[in-house]
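A reminder before we start the practical. When you read a complex entry, don't treat the lines as separate problems. The point of joint prediction is that each chain is placed relative to the others, so the output describes one connected object in space. Small molecules and nucleic acid strands, if listed, are placed in the same frame. In the example below there are two entries. Take a minute to note the order of the lines before looking further.
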Amino acid sequence: MIGTVPILKIGRTLLVSIQIELSDAVAEGMQNDVLAALERTNAKGIVVDISGFDTVDTYVARILAETAKMAKLMGARSVLVGMRPEVAATLVRMGYTMDDVQFALNLDEGLALLGHVIPR
Amino acid sequence: MHARYLRTLKFDELELASRRTFFRVTDEDLARLASLRSFAEKHTEAIVEAFYELLLGHPETAKFFSDELAVKHVKKLQRDYFLQLFDGRCDLAYVENRLRVGAAHERIGLAPKWYLGAYRRYLEVVREQLFKTFPSDEARASMESITRIVFFDMSIAIDTYIAANLETIGRHQLAIRELSTPVIRVHERILLMPLIGTIDSLRANQIMDALLLRVVEEQARFVIVDIAGVPVVDTKVADSLLKTTAAVRMLGAQVILTGISAPIARTLVQLGVDVSSMHTCARLQEGIELALQLAGKVIVDREKGGAP
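Here is the predicted structure of the whole assembly.
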């Protein structure tokens, strides 16, 4: 399928790696898929990798933030990882700081934040 | 160098034509100048001597000519310069040649006032010789043509001074921009950005962009922003610090704000700025210790035998 976001399960964590520019429709689809996967797997954490984003608009940012809140209601913590500097700068300048979302520098740290210990 | 100035000044055929019109440098003038060539050649020596007598006789200009050899060299250049006035040409090649003169003066630090003052002497001597040599009608017409090309020359020389200064200012601005956003790695994955001087909105943006870039490059977990050197923290500065903190957080790192003096603390509270989103410390030292502590490390005093 074109324009969907793969959702992988590692232990009790869902890994959502977004490597395409999110259109509004794809973002909404992703939200549905993540929540459905959460229901199905009873995962306790979600790591969303957004390092593929060059730009992001407030609508997509809001969907990401809302997905995190919805997941929390279902008992799962979410971490956004790998945001690029220019994306962070743009969001902040638009006054959107995503205060209720957790962030990490990269996938390793995101997983560590959720209590996953990656053996080295 | 002069070719670059030609571009900086946007000096093209159009500009040349416009300037020639304004300075009234007509083809007739150029023809008259060419016809004065033999007169010029005859009096070059005397004119150049009078010119340097003035320059070497004044203490502030004399210091530009260190020794006999240097004087001999510039006199030769001056003779060429003078004779080129009587080439009967006023095209882009001529302009480029004149630009070189201004550039050379700028390089040795000879201010425009000396250049203009010395040129006045030039004209004085030329006028004397013209009226001695030709009937007054002819001398007057010749003097007019020479004045036109000389003023044209001066406009170019002044432009060169300005272009050279603009270049210098541009270089300084670049240096200031780089100096104004230093990011230092103090420890593994801990960065320090010491801010010194006034922060305006342009600089606030540069600070944020530079910091975010380095956080990702270094995969830093903690960023210590020291504002001890910032003289005034107003709502705008506070707001930019808050924005930077929020952006750094979205990358997955944390900001520790240090160097908060009593007046700054007072201002922040009185302005109603909520800085609870960042860690704050009075001193840089405490900020570094806090960053290490949050990273799970401690600084141990060996004298006191190990554990903190």
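Discuss with your neighbour: The domain at 7-113 of chain A is CATH 3.30.750.24 (Transcription Regulator spoIIAA). What might explain this?
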